[in-house]
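Give me the fold.
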Amino acid sequence: MYDVEYLFVTCVNDILNYGTNLFKFAEIGLLYENKYDIVNKCFKAATNRAPFLPLKYKEENDQIFWNSPELVLEFVKHCPRTETFTENDIFQKVFEWVEGQCESRNIEINSKNLHEIFAPFEPFICFEKMDIKILTSTVYEYKLIPEERLLKCYHNHIIKVEKCYQEHFVGKNQSRMPNTSNAFIMESHMGHLRLRYV
């Protein structure tokens, strides 16, 4: 309010102790053009101390608000990924927010609406690093990413599994283990993905 640098910095550092409203403070930080890196500091604090927080916040009257699309985009782009807060967690929070937008707009939660709201965030999420379970359920079910990119994710997963298999089993007992190279072929038929063993 008074534009006193010391007071601003003190406030920024102090609000990081209020773990339950970090995304509200990040939203305020956007209004101040991320002065003193307040937005990213809130993201980092949320990742380290309150990874369970959804992308919404509570006002003094206990009314709940979902964060703005602008803040969610910043979250996807800049929220630090760690061993305990992975790309899976980033995706789950964003997808929860997308579902919340459908409810707020009173529109049906279906592939078309979810994909439309999710589209701006898709380029900044590294699906290649996500668990195959999430890819084959939520991502595939609601067609959140192009089929070609999903195929690439499956391909990378199979290569990773096969490499692990080769290192842990074949390398130890080469004579008794079959060669699994090219054991799976990914196919796209009539809009459906499938894996075929050959």
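Residues 147-198 form one domain.
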